[in-house]
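I'll show an entry:

:::
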Amino acid sequence: MDLSKIPHLSHTNSNNFFLLAGPCAIEGEEMALRIAEQVLNITDKLSIPFVFKGSFKKANRSRIDSFTGIGDENALEILAKISQKFEVPTVTDIHEVSDAAKAAQYVDVLQIPAFLVRQTDLVVAAANTGKVVNLKKGQFMSPESMQHAVRKVTDSGNEQVMVTDRGTMFGYQDMIVDFRGIPTMKQFAPTVLDVTHSLQQPNQTSGVTGGRPDMIATISRAGIAAGADGIFLETHFDPANAKSDGANMLDIRHLEKLLTDLVAIRQTVNGL
C-alpha cells in the first residue's frame, strides 16, 4: 500500500506512524467536526498522517435497543463534510455488500469489521471500489490467516490494503493483544494496532460492552515499539456519554500527551 495515494493525507514523508482516529459512531455533525478539528490540530503539530474515523452505522450491537446511527446518508454526508472542510481522508466500516459502493462515494478508506473479515463477497466488493481497504483481524483468527484476506483484495486488482489487529478473544469477556502478530502481518500488508477495541471487555451480562481505557497508553506504546505502521483509536470529548463504545474510548483531553509519547518511541525505533 502506498500511503501517498490516499487523498488529502498529510505528513506522509515524516517517517512517523499513521493514525486512524475519531469517535466510534457519527452521533451528529457538531460532535464529529469538533473531534476532527482537535485531532487534526494535534497531528499537524506532531507531523502524524491522520485519517478521520467514524462509523456511519453500527450493525454489530449487543442489544436491539443499542444505538445504531443517525441515518446512513446523514452520517456519510458528515464524513464527506469533514474531508472537505479539514482536507483529511476518512474511513468508515461497512457491513453489507451494498454498503461498499454507497460508502465509497463519501470516504477514502473502507473498513471491514473483524467479525466479517472472512466474508469473501464483502471483502471483494470493497476491493472493487478501488478505495483503500482496511481489514480488521478477526478476534478468532491467527495473524498468519490474515494473508488470505489480504489476497482477496489484491487478487481483485486492488493493492491498496492494510490490516488492523484488534485483539484476540481470551475467554468469554476479555481480549488480549499478541504482539507477535504485528511483524507477522507486516509480511502481508501495512499493519495497524487498534488500541481501544483491543481493550474491550465484550459479552457483559448487561448487554453493554465494557473496557479498560486505563491501559490505552500501555498497549499503544507496546504496539509502536513492536513496529506497528499505524495506530487506530477511538476518542471522544465525553466518553461516559458517548452513544457507542464509550467504555473503551480515550478522552480526547489525553490524546496529545499520548501521541507525543508515541512519536518519541517511534523515533527511537527508527534509530535502531
